From TrEMBL:
Primary location group: secreted
Lineage of the species this protein comes from: Eukaryota, Metazoa, Spiralia, Lophotrochozoa, Platyhelminthes
Name this polypeptide is given: BPTI/Kunitz inhibitor domain-containing protein
Organism: Rodentolepis nana (Dwarf tapeworm)
Record domain BPTI/Kunitz inhibitor: where: 12-62
InterPro entries from the UniProt entry: Kunitz_BPTI, Kunitz_BPTI_sf, Prtase_inh_Kunz-CS, TFPI/VKTCI-like
């Protein structure tokens, strides 16, 4: 069995993460098992860094970094209908996960504050225009 790895960028090895919010934002993530950038629906908050606005951006960040290695390990599961081998993404080191979580929380809070202030400004403009 072969297994594709992102060598230079740990972000590319993170699993797809839609985040807890319910927005519907089309984004791309890098799938190291297939060495391809795939479309998914991002919820709009949290998640992880394996999230790109465009396929080109995803491919530039991760696509050229994959190489094929024979792990010698059997696949975790074989989909019998398609014969496709399915394997879980590699475990992310705790340090990488914690750093990505810290960054995600920081930017999520800034995004929330930005939207709050933007909404306040829109409301104030509407009130002033009514007068």
């Amino acid at each position: 069995m072969t297994f594709r790895l992102c060598l230079r960028n740990n972000i590319c090895r993170l699993p797809k993460d839609t985040g807890p919010c319910k927005g519907g934002h089309a984004r791309y993530y890098y799938d190291p098992n297939t060495a391809k950038c795939r479309l998914f629906m991002y919820g709009g908050c949290l998640g992880n860094g394996n999230r790109f606005t465009t396929k080109v951006e995803c491919e530039e960040a991760c696509g050229a970094m994959s190489e094929v290695y024979d792990t010698g390990a059997p696949p975790a599961k074989v989909n019998e209908a398609s014969g496709v081998q399915v394997q879980k993404a590699p475990q992310v080191p705790v340090e990488v996960f914690e750093e990505m979580r810290r960054i995600t929380v920081m930017y999520s809070e800034r995004y929330r504050e930005f939207n709050l202030h933007r909404n306040e400004n829109v409301i104030m403009k509407a009130i002033l225009q009514e007068k």
